[in-house]
């Protein structure tokens, strides 16, 4: 699904390049088609002494499934210390034991990619703690698309690393920001996105041992995509999808383990009011979410889904920034039993940043009530609150609340 244009720079480029230069082993996790393979291929082009095992190739996969130790013997037959590259490593979890031996005995350094933590965890795979550096790749961030005009919230500040492309922010609300999608002509994006979601069903979900439930899972997936960004009513989803409540919970776990959704927990620290405690889920890419929900993949959809789409865009960007900055922050939401709510809380430990997300260009005072209540309830942790809007300029809305355009997050 990669486009024909120049490869875009990614935030993890420099650190990954440094790992390879130092012959340090690494594991790159991320959903399908976020650019893992393209990035690794670019990085290792100059490494002539390497062995590649692309597990998408059935011949290679079947061969190594029968005999995972073959990698060790092939490395031992060489007169040099190679880079061993294993793409989609989760397909054969047993290979992680072979990789550990190669690393521990200094016979090779390894680069692995994977798109599912579920199969690794369920198989008890050795994830090489202390031996390997881990990276996570997401769809493109705003700075990778050249959209950042200014940083207002310093703890999650990032600079642009690519020029602003013809692909716009409004485009991303419909088509998401998978690298291969943004480089396609607009008239092709919808068909490719729909095909991508089918691939996930056929390859990822079937591979995760829910084959007997694939029809029910398909029904659930469409409903879950529609509910994305909310506290889903699991009983309602069970009734509407025709599967049991335990199966609905299992399906959400499958989505989380295969990196298709982001789970956002409620902020619960020292609350004076009773807090609603169920999680929210955001699909990892807005375009994938729209395709799964069977919404028209055209700009008219923004008119009916603007608030939901804008909130998704901002929440995903904040989650991705925290990850790429390697910060030990938690991204949460806050909602009390009386209905007071803040869309996003960045929990930095001693300090928190409350953020409300509004798709309008202007904000009225009644829309600030959740922020004001939160700032009043947590005066020691939160000194300043923000409202992210689709406006064009910053605006002071209260003594400790500022509205900022999305491009100045």
Protein architecture, described:
By secondary structure, the chain is of the alpha/beta class. The chain has 2 domains: 13-136, Rossmann fold, CATH 3.40.50.300; 142-408, no CATH class. The chain has helices at residues 13-21, 36-44, 58-66, 70-76, 95-104, 118-122, 169-175, 179-182, 186-207, 214-226, 234-241, 245-257, 286-292, 300-324, 369-377; strands spanning 26-29, 50-54, 83-87, 109-114, 133-136, 261-266, 280-283, 330-335, 341-347, 352-357, 385-389, 395-398, 401-405. It has an 8-stranded mixed beta sheet with strand order 7-6-8-9-10-11-13-12, with helices on both faces. Strands 2-3-4-1-5 form a 5-stranded parallel beta sheet, sandwiched between helices. The longest helix is centred in the C-terminal third of the chain and has 25 residues, at 300-324. It is globular, with a radius of gyration of 22 Å.
| Total beta strands | 13
Q: Which whole number gives the mean pLDDT?
A: 88
Strand order, sheet with most strands: 7-6-8-9-10-11-13-12
Largest sheet: 8 strands, mixed
Describe the secondary structure blueprint for this structure.
Blueprint (H helix, E strand, L loop, with lengths): L12 H9 L4 E4 L6 H9 L5 E5 L3 H9 L3 H7 L6 E5 L7 H10 L4 E6 L3 H5 L10 E4 L32 H7 L3 H4 L3 H22 L6 H13 L7 H8 L3 H13 L3 E6 L13 E4 L2 H7 L7 H25 L5 E6 L5 E7 L4 E6 L11 H9 L7 E5 L5 E4 L2 E5 L4
Parallel strand pairs: 1-4, 1-5, 2-3, 3-4, 6-8, 10-11, 11-13
Antiparallel strand pairs: 6-7, 8-9, 9-10, 12-13
């Amino acid at each position: 699904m990669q486009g024909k244009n120049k490869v875009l720079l990614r935030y993890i480029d420099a650190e990954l390049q440094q790992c390879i230069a130092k012959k340090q082993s690494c594991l790159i996790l991320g959903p399908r088609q976020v650019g893992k393979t393209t990035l690794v291929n670019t990085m290792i082009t100059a490494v002539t002494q390497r062995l590649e095992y692309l597990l998408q190739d059935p011949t290679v996969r079947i061969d190594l499934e029968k005999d995972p130790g073959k990698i060790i013997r092939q490395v031992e037959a060489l007169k040099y210390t190679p880079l061993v590259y294993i793409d989609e490593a989760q397909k054969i979890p047993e290979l992680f034991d072979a990789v550990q031996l190669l690393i521990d005995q200094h016979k090779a350094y390894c680069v692995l990619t994977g798109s599912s933590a579920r199969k690794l965890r369920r198989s008890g795979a050795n994830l090489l703690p202390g031996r390997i550096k881990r990276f996570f790749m997401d769809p493109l961030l705003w700075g990778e698309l050249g959209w950042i005009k200014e940083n207002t919230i310093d703890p999650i500040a990032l600079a642009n690393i690519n020029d602003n492309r013809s692909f716009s922010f409004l485009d991303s609300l419909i088509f998401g920001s998978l690298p291969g999608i943004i480089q396609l002509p607009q008239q092709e994006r919808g068909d490719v996105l729909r095909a991508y979601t089918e691939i996930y069903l056929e390859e990822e979900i079937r591979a995760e041992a829910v084959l007997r439930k694939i029809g029910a899972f398909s029904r659930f997936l469409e409903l879950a995509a529609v509910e994305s960004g909310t506290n889903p009513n699991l009983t309602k989803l069970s009734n509407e999808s025709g599967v049991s409540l335990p199966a609905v919970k299992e399906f959400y776990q499958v989505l989380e383990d295969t990196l298709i959704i982001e789970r956002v927990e409620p902020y619960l620290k020292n609350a004076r009011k009773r807090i609603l405690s169920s999680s929210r889920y955001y699909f990892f890419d807005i375009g994938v979410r729209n395709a799964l929900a069977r919404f028209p993949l055209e700009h008219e959809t923004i008119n009916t889904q603007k608030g939901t789409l804008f909130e998704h865009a901002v929440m995903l960007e904040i989650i991705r920034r925290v990850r790429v900055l390697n910060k030990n922050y938690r991204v949460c939401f806050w909602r009390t039993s009386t209905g007071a709510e803040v869309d996003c809380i960045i929990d930095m430990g001693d300090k928190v940043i409350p953020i409300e997300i509004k798709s309008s260009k202007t904000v009225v005072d009644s829309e600030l009530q959740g922020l004001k209540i939160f700032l009043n309830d947590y005066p020691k942790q939160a000194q300043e609150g923000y409202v992210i809007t689709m406006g064009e300029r910053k605006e002071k809305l209260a003594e400790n609340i500022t509205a900022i355009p999305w491009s100045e997050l």
